[in-house]
Design brief:
Layout: H1 21-35, H2 37-45, E1 53-54, H3 66-84, E2 94-95, H4 100-109, H5 119-143, E3 154-155, H6 159-174, E4 178-188, E5 193-195, E6 200-218, E7 228-234, E8 245-248, E9 253-259, E10 262-267, H7 271-277, E11 284-290, E12 298-300, E13 307-312, E14 325-327, H8 333-341, H9 368-381, E15 385-398, E16 406-415, H10 421-429, E17 432-434, H11 437-448, E18 452-453, E19 455-456, E20 467-469, E21 475-476, H12 479-492, H13 496-499, E22 520-522, E23 526-527, H14 529-534, H15 536-541, E24 553-557, H16 564-576, E25 583-587, E26 590-591, H17 608-614, H18 617-626, E27 633-634, H19 637-659, H20 666-669, H21 678-699, H22 703-732, H23 738-758, H24 763-772, H25 796-821, E28 831-837, H26 839-845, H27 851-855, E29 859-862, E30 875-881, E31 885-886, E32 893-894, H28 908-917
Parallel strand pairs: 1-24, 2-3, 7-10, 8-13, 17-25, 24-25, 26-27, 28-29
Antiparallel strand pairs: 4-5, 4-16, 6-7, 6-12, 6-15, 8-14, 9-10, 9-11, 12-13, 16-18, 19-23, 20-21, 20-22, 28-30, 31-32
Length: 924
């Protein structure tokens, strides 16, 4: 029996079927380092327009998590794409290194007593800790396949960075944006420091909910005084000792309610809800007043000999409570400002550790949360506790320690947002925000935010470069001192502030502008870490020759509208009058497969390292591309298995293309466009339509669309149609047949184009494909150009014709499937189809050669058009068993099989091919 399989052009390639990515990717990355691919890419694009994506610095503490992987991978997609598009697109990764978490790690893990260790020594420990985690995270980011200048990252603890940060601060001082003042700020007892809004997270907290009666001492001729009380509501009983007033709204109606012997004042609209909560069934309203009519009424503190006057504020609402707001200027932002307006003074009887001071007699030494119970007891003793319940509500917590914070009035340094708020709001309009709702979000945050508290009570940070006069206490800071300190830090780093005496930290002949003294002490507070990272646009973009200011893009999680996006905008507009970025892109957060936040307690945390070790970095990157990153993304093992299956299909597509290009030399075998078959020209048109969509999707940062379009093209157009149809001519025809070379020409375009378009997403696999691609000159696919639309291939008439043919093909395939289900046929090549088309359908079907190959059947009979077939139906199909025998070589069923004496098991076509090729077929 003759073995005709050796006469076929079966696919042949060394490109492995299995990716084996966990093993193969490190080899590819090692090769990238050996050839300095980052340097080669930049060298190729030197002198071209720049595209600068400025890296938001992750914190140098712990291993990277899946959110880091998402963020860095998205950035890598963009930088790689822009490089392929011809831009000079350097990527300088960065790290944020100062602040509480590292201090806490040194104290807890190394058992160091921060307050009993030399500051310079302690800071050195912090520095070493930060640098060790930078190296750890760097290796993890590189394992993701992120390309960048990893040998020269920017780090906020480096001397040159700290010096630039000092100059940013000095510029803000020069412009009058920095001041020192007493304010009620977020204070973290667990961290013993002030916090900025960006360092606050909200979690559920169970709190006491108390209704308290304040006795009326002076009704000012409006309210009765005997047994009359103003009712307030609060969830922070510990602040009652600090009460200095009660705030009402001038425009609300207030009712005086008789309940037993007591007369209770509260907002009219809230009477019923308050009485229901207080479980008072019998009551009646005996008088009603406008809020403003109660001006001048004075209450008495429930248990201190202190007045509590009625005042008015717009922050008083009817959403909850009583419409009468307990006011403690030392423990609330709105309370503080209202206290200033009414000259109440500030009482803050809580220290930095959260313990009550002598300013709260009877509660000294109690932690503020423990004081809740004792204050409530005291209120009950004096008969002023109307009701105690408990509620669970969203409460501010320290984002690092995850413990509750309080408002506490302290002396701090602030950046006056009012000084440049309007400029920021205008600059926001000049930035492209992706998604578009980001503009509204940051606009509202800037419009509503208070002044920025920039001082922190920490050691590990950039010191506030401020001196105080030893004689009068006046702050001393000017251009000369800023320049001196910046120059010093550039040489020695900011630890010089702690290592040197005051006279070594300032130029000679400095004197106090208030009293003339030349004796000074130095500030002990450090800068908010958001000031550190918020200065990066100056400290990095303006300092490095390969970069440029402003950046083209900032890309971070959506929490950074109140964080890095915000602080960077603030320092930039304050010092330069312009936003530091032309565009901002934000992404959501990673959840588990059920949409739950990942946490160790739930056991649903997915670590990037484990995913990479099991599946490979390209699978994780493909998941990033598949996700709608603007919302929260889900990730689970099940989802990863689905992505791995998509990857397998993409890899098989590349393998099929490579296998069928065996022996094809694009330099000499490529067929000109005009000589391509209609089918191949149609495929080339569809490829270029895809190129147009992919370019647009990358430009829009719509990576999900890139993923979907390429996957759909490979899975549907290629796998289910084009490559399936091509198999016959690729395998059966002579190797150098014009029809086969036409197909190979387009397959080559498919291979190179798809590979380049997928390179930003799966760079390791893309590099592997490139190594097996015939006829390429560049050593790496990263040194090529991104595909552009070839307009010359478009032919609207041909495309329309073949689009219609595909619709007819769907009808035929459905009929074949029905015939297969009825066991009329097995393989589609066992079928013959008879087509009766509509008039319009006939017009294009009659112009198509070899319809049987398009439908992958053995024979097609095309009848004249019939009026009984509507244009909507397109064609009526009858499936029959094909007449003849199955050709042993091409598997087509043909009546010609058996009629050739030399090859009795072959059809006439295959016998003719063998004669032409002079094949010597072995007989087994």
């Amino acid at each position: 029996m003759a073995d005709y399989s050796k006469t076929l052009n079966l696919p042949k390639t060394d490109f492995p079927m299995r990716g084996n990515l966990p093993k193969r990717e490190p080899e590819v990355q090692k090769w990238w380092e050996e050839i300095d691919i980052y340097g080669q890419v930049l060298a190729k694009r030197k002198g071209n327009p720049k595209f600068i994506l400025h890296d938001g610095p992750p914190y140098a503490n712990g291993d990277i998590h899946i959110g880091h992987a998402l963020n860095k991978t998205l950035k890598d997609f963009i930088v790689r794409y822009k490089s392929l598009k011809g831009y000079f697109a350097p990527y300088v990764p960065g790290w944020d290194t100062h602040g509480l978490p590292i201090e806490h790690a040194i104290v807890s893990k190394k058992k160091v007593d921060r307050k009993n260790v030399d500051p310079v020594q302690f800071r050195e420990m912090c520095k070493d800790y930060a640098l060790s985690f930078i190296e750890k995270q760097k290796a993890q980011f590189k394992r993701l396949g992120v390309r960048g200048d990893w040998d020269h990252p920017y780090i906020t603890l480096l001397p040159e960075y700290e010096a630039a940060q000092i100059r940013v601060f000095g510029k803000m001082v020069e412009k009058g944006h920095i001041y020192r003042g007493m304010k009620s700020v977020y204070w973290s007892p667990s961290s013993e420091t002030a916090l900025a809004e960006a360092e606050i997270e909200y979690y559920d907290k169970r709190s006491a909910s108390i209704y308290v009666t304040f006795p009326v001492e002076n009704g000012n001729g409006v309210l009765p005084e005997q047994d009359t009380y103003v009712v307030i509501w609060t969830t922070t009983p510990w602040t009652i000792p600090a009460n200095l007033a009660i705030a009402l709204n001038e425009d609300f109606d207030y009712s005086l309610v008789q309940a037993g012997e007591r007369k209770l004042l509260m907002a009219k609209e809230l009477v019923d809800s308050v009485m229901k909560t207080a479980e008072i069934d019998s009551y009646e309203t005996i008088a009603t007043y406008k809020g403003k009519d109660l001006n001048g009424v004075i209450c008495r503190h429930p248990f201190y000999d202190r007045k509590s006057p009625i005042i008015f504020g717009d922050h008083v609402t009817l959403d909850a409570g009583t419409g009468c707001v307990h006011t403690a200027p030392g423990h609330g932002e709105e309370d503080f400002y209202l206290g200033q307006k009414y000259q109440l003074g500030v009482l803050c009887p809580v220290d930095g550790k959260g313990k009550m001071t002598a300013g709260a007699p009877g509660f000294e030494g109690l932690f503020y949360e423990d004081a809740n119970k004792e204050v409530t007891k005291k209120l009950e003793e004096v008969g002023c506790l109307l009701k105690l319940t408990f509620i669970t509500h969203q409460y501010p917590h320290d984002w690092r320690t995850k413990k509750p914070v309080i408002f506490r009035a302290t002396e701090q340094w602030f950046a006056s947002i009012d000084g440049f708020r309007d400029e920021m709001l205008e600059e926001i309009k000049n930035v492209k925000w992706t998604p578009s709702w980001g503009e509204i979000r940051i606009h509202n945050m800037i419009a509503d935010r208070g002044d920025w508290c920039i001082s922190r009570q920490r050691i590990w940070g950039v010191p506030l470069p401020i001196f105080y006069c030893e004689e009068c206490g006046h702050p001393h800071i000017n251009g000369e001192t800023i320049d001196f300190i910046a120059d010093l830090f550039a040489k020695e780093g900011s630890s010089a502030w702690y290592a040197k005496e005051v006279h070594e930290l300032m130029p000679a002949n400095q004197s106090c502008s208030e009293c003339g003294s030349n004796r000074f002490r130095k500030e002990t507070d450090t800068m908010d870490v958001w000031f550190d990272s918020g200065s990066s646009h100056i400290a990095v973009l303006e300092q490095r020759e390969e970069l440029a200011w402003p950046a083209d893009l900032y890309l971070e999680g959506s929490d950074q509208y109140r964080g890095w996006f915000n602080s960077s905008l603030s320092t930039s507009v304050a010092t330069k009058g312009q936003a530091p970025y032309k565009g901002v892109l934000s992404h959501g957060f990673t959840m588990d497969g059920e949409g739950r936040k990942m946490s160790k307690s739930l056991g649903n945390v997915i670590e990037p390292a484990k995913v990479i070790n099991q599946y490979g970095a390209d699978i994780l990157r493909l998941w990033v591309a598949s996700s709608d990153y603007q919302a929260d993304q889900r990730l689970s093992d099940g989802i990863l298995k689905q992505i791995a299956e998509v990857y397998r299909k993409l890899r098989n597509t590349f393998r099929f293309l490579l296998g069928n290009l065996n022996g094809f030399d694009p330099a000499k075998d490529r067929v000109p466009l005009a000589e391509l078959t209609e089918l191949d020209r149609f495929a080339l048109i569809k490829l270029n339509r895809l190129v147009g969509r992919i370019n647009q999707a990358y430009d829009d940062y719509d990576f999900h669309q890139v993923y979907y379009d390429i996957h759909h093209f490979c899975n549907v157009f290629l796998s289910q149609f084009y490559l399936d149809v091509l198999k016959d001519r690729l395998y059966v025809l002579l190797p150098d047949s014009p029809v086969r070379r036409s197909a190979q020409t387009v397959l080559y375009e498919m291979l190179v184009t798809l590979n380049k378009m997928l390179n930003p997403i799966i760079p390791h696999t893309s590099e592997e494909v490139w190594r097996h691609t015939p006829g390429v000159e560049e050593i790496s696919v990263q040194l090529t150009d991104f595909p552009e639309v070839e307009v010359s291939v478009f032919d609207d008439e041909l495309e329309q014709k073949w689009d219609q043919l595909l619709h007819v093909r769907d009808v035929v395939l459905k009929s074949l499937e029905e015939a297969r289900a009825a066991k009329l046929i097995g393989n589609s090549l066992g079928a013959s189809v008879e087509l009766t088309p509509s008039e319009k359908t006939y017009q294009f079907l009659s112009s198509v050669d070899e319809l049987e190959q398009v439908f992958i059947v053995s024979d097609v009979k095309l009848n004249p058009p019939s009026h009984e077939v509507t244009e909507e139906q397109k064609v009526h199909v009858i499936v029959r068993v094909a007449e003849g025998e199955k050709c042993e070589r091409c598997w087509v069923v043909s009546p010609s099989v058996g009629k050739n004496e030399d090859h009795p098991t072959l059809c006439n076509r295959c016998a003719s091919i063998l004669r032409e090729a002079h094949f010597d077929v072995e007989i087994n």
